Amino acid sequence: MVYESQYAGTNKGTAASWTVDNVGAVAKWLKEKGVSFEHYEFPGSSREGDVHIMGNIHAAWFKNPSGNILGLNN
User: Is residue 69 part of a domain?
Assistant: First the structure.
C-alpha cells in the first residue's frame, strides 16, 4: 500500500501493511505471541480491543523492535 502522508520521512506513519481476512483473529494471535498494539484516535472510529473500526475497514497497528509502525487491515 502506498499513500501520501504528512509524516513522510519521519516514520510516524505506517511503514508496511498486510491485508488479512480477519484482522481481529490475526491481532489476537500476534498478541498471544507478545506483540503490543498501538491505539489511535480517529474521528468517527471505534475500537474493539486492539482493532480499530472505521465503517467497513478494520485495522490494527504495532511496532517492530526498530520502532517502525506495521499494520493489518481487511
Answer: no
